[in-house]
Amino acid sequence: xxxxxxxxxxxxxxxxxxxxxxxxxxxxxxxxxxxxxxxxxxxxxxxxxxxxxxxxxxxxxxxxxxxxxxxxxxxxxxxxxxxxxxxxxxxxxxxxxxxxxxxxxxxxxxxxxxxxxxxxxxxxxxxxxxxxxxxxxxxxxxxxxxxxxxxxxxxxxxxxxxxxxxxxxxxxxxxxxxxxxxxxxxxxxxxxxxxxxxxxxxxxxxxxxxxxxxxxxxxxxxxxxxxxxxxxxxxxxxxxxxxxxxxxxxxxxxxxxxxxxxxxxxxxxxxxxxxxxxxxxxxxxxxxxxxxxxxxxxxxxxxxxxxxxxxxxxxxxxxxxxxxxxxxxxxxxxxxxxxxxxxxxxxxxx
Length: 350
Ligand code: HEC
Ligand code: HEC
Ligand code: HEC
Ligand code: HEC
Ligand code: HEC
Ligand code: HEC
Ligand code: HEC
Fold this sequence. Notes:
The chain crosses the membrane at residues 319-341. Keywords: Membrane, Signal, Transmembrane, Transmembrane helix. This is Outer membrane cytochrome MtrC/MtrF-like domain-containing protein. By secondary structure, this protein is α/β, with parallel strands linked by helices. The chain has helices at 5-24, 33-40, 43-46, 54-58, 95-103, 112-115, 129-137, 142-150, 156-162, 165-169, 196-203, 222-230, 315-341, 343-349, and strands spanning 175-184, 191-193, 219-220, 237-245, 275-280, 286-291. The protein folds into 2 domains: 5-92, no CATH class; 122-329, no CATH class. The chain is built from 14 helices and 6 strands. Strands 1, 2, 3, 4, 5 and 6 form a 6-stranded mixed beta sheet that branches. The model is unreliable at 10-31 and 327-350 (pLDDT under 50). The structure holds heme C (7 copies).
């Protein structure tokens, strides 16, 4: 084939374009994550407010994307040009979440990074229920929430400690029980989660999972739970359970079936069979081990700090529980229906 002049012109034009691209769009190739972290990974250099923990970031699902996937306009000239970088738009990639979120009552009231720390995001199975609640209570104070929920929900304080807000306020319906190691102290409830460091101190030479999983097989049996709960060496430690969602939907709303106590206080073989024990990692995220099916029902020795009224193996306790719920229902149903019918008015009045 003979090379014609117009081919040459075309080739030259393409080289020219490639050259322009290299010079004018430095973000993609020169300014990579390590480069950013040379400054932002060093608090002494940029100050606390601009510090980003590179190890935490690398361990997230965003780690591989690198900084510039979100901070698209951080190029060569940054920070010398003194130009502020554009706000990051999570929706470039998470459009499904955005769509769902915008269909809920929260749209426009809180942005993605009001709840998520963008440099250390984790999925719901690696974030504690406790931390999920911390995402809400900066705007919805616990004391106000306990007061308002107490009007229809007995022991609202206990519920808020045991059920993260999102379990009731989004339609994430697949919930499990997750156990956390805690010590007694005041935070917003009467317990605080043990950190990785604190547990490592107790565990000494052992790995922290072996505090409960004694045989180290990666599963927690009912026998191991019982042994943990009765061991003298762990007297300061407790296990508390929370009902956490496996996946999180973002359509924040007030859902009618969450008035229904039996949504959670169910009985029968399917009730509360699946549970996990979550151990804190050094970076604040959690790693779960699975727990023998049905362990959550052994309220006597297996899980003494968790009692799901209506779902235990103990008949007397269940009958008692059923009575509490039935008794409690009289008020919530009557009250609830009334509030439901007047909801429009209430919203107008706010
Ligand atoms: C030479 C050190 C240095 C490097 C390298 C650097 N930054 Fe910065 N960055 C700074 C400083 C200093 C500021 C504060 C600038 C200001 O206040 O004008 C800043 C501010 C920022 C901000 C927040 C404020 C704003 O301008 O919107 C972001 C986001 C940011 N940098 C991201 C990055 C990313 C992403 C990279 C890598 C592509 C990077 N930086 C590389 C020093 C650096
Ligand atoms: C998933 C998207 C995403 C990635 C990836 C990302 N950031 Fe950010 N970053 C954000 C968001 C969102 C903010 C909040 C301000 C905004 O909207 O620009 C932010 C803020 C910042 C700030 C300002 C201080 C702060 O913490 O609010 C700095 C500095 C920064 N990022 C640096 C980095 C560096 C360095 C990397 C890579 C190690 C990185 N970012 C990766 C989304 C991201
Ligand atoms: C450049 C694309 C991109 C952007 C922009 C982006 N993400 Fe992601 N994000 C991903 C990918 C890919 C995953 C992993 C797959 C998935 O869960 O969809 C992910 C996962 C997540 C997860 C779950 C983490 C896990 O371990 O399961 C959260 C939470 C998250 N992103 C929040 C955010 C937030 C908040 C922002 C805005 C600050 C953001 N993302 C911006 C691509 C992005
Ligand atoms: C009102 C608080 C709140 C807001 C606002 C919010 N999220 Fe979330 N999101 C959560 C909670 C709580 C979880 C579960 C714990 C976790 O993974 O951090 C979660 C989980 C996620 C996950 C993982 C979902 C899964 O099932 O694996 C992604 C992805 C995500 N959020 C993206 C976003 C994006 C994008 C936005 C903005 C459109 C957003 N979030 C706004 C509270 C919020
Ligand atoms: C950045 C602030 C902010 C954060 C964070 C936040 N919210 Fe909200 N939320 C609001 C505002 C503002 C409203 C509307 C006014 C009101 O009802 O308090 C609202 C309304 C609501 C409503 C509807 C109330 C009604 O009257 O119908 C629910 C339910 C709700 N939020 C749940 C949550 C949950 C669950 C979380 C955490 C996962 C959360 N919010 C985190 C600001 C926030
Ligand atoms: C057991 C399920 C459940 C839990 C847990 C729960 N809520 Fe609610 N919440 C509801 C229901 C049902 C309503 C509707 C009650 C009404 O309209 O009076 C409601 C009402 C609300 C409202 C509107 C009325 C008000 O009090 O302002 C807000 C805001 C709210 N919840 C936020 C939260 C937050 C934040 C948390 C966690 C700290 C939380 N909820 C925990 C079920 C729950
Ligand atoms: C979203 C799930 C959920 C819903 C809905 C729910 N609960 Fe609960 N409830 C729990 C959990 C989890 C616990 C705490 C178990 C523990 O930590 O001991 C609990 C505890 C209780 C307790 C206290 C038991 C004790 O140890 O003192 C009572 C009473 C109770 N619930 C009644 C109700 C009633 C009545 C309703 C309906 C108005 C209701 N619950 C709705 C999940 C739920």
